[in-house]
Amino acid sequence: MSTPRVGTPIWIDLGTTDFAASQAFYTDLFGWKYQGTGADFAHYNIVHQPDGELLGGAMDISGMHGPDGKPLPSSWDVFLAVDDISARFEKALDCGAQTVLEPHQVGDQGHFALLTDPTGARVG
Fold first, then answer.
1. What is the pLDDT of residue 48?
2. Measured between alpha carbons, how far is 120 from 92 in angstroms, rounded to an integer?
3. Residue 39: helix, strand or coil by DSSP?
4. What is the pTM of this model?
5. CA-based, 20 to 30 A from 61: which of 16, 20, 23, 96?
6. 6 to each of 52, 60, 80, 88, how far by Cα in Å?
7. What is the chain's Cα-based Rg?
8. Is 106:112 a contact under the CB 8 Å cutoff?
9. Mean pLDDT, consecutive 10-residue segments, the chain of 124 residues?
10. pLDDT for residue 1
11. Closest by alpha carbon to 110, among 11, 37, 22?
């Protein structure tokens, strides 16, 4: 598998306040399949296309709050490929982004971070 170009979408992530309803909707609409990761990973679900191709993830965010203290709304996030997460994270901050989650390791899958761009849109 080739390395994705910097800035290319590589993962989508759904945070939902009603996981059962979201799962039913996307399963009915697209035939997506969900694989739970258990309590060690906050019951995050890996999402696959009907043919088994990896698509992204989803989790119940009920009761979670953002950095501003407000409850998190249901939303989709997109994660973009970078060449050096620490350097790109700092560059994003220099370009006006705000931190949601600083870069950190995700098991053996790599690293991720979450920011808001200068307009408030979230991007990972």
1. 97
2. 13
3. helix
4. 0.84
5. 96
6. 25, 29, 7, 10
7. 15
8. yes
9. 87 95 98 92 92 94 87 93 95 95 85 92 92
10. 59
11. 11
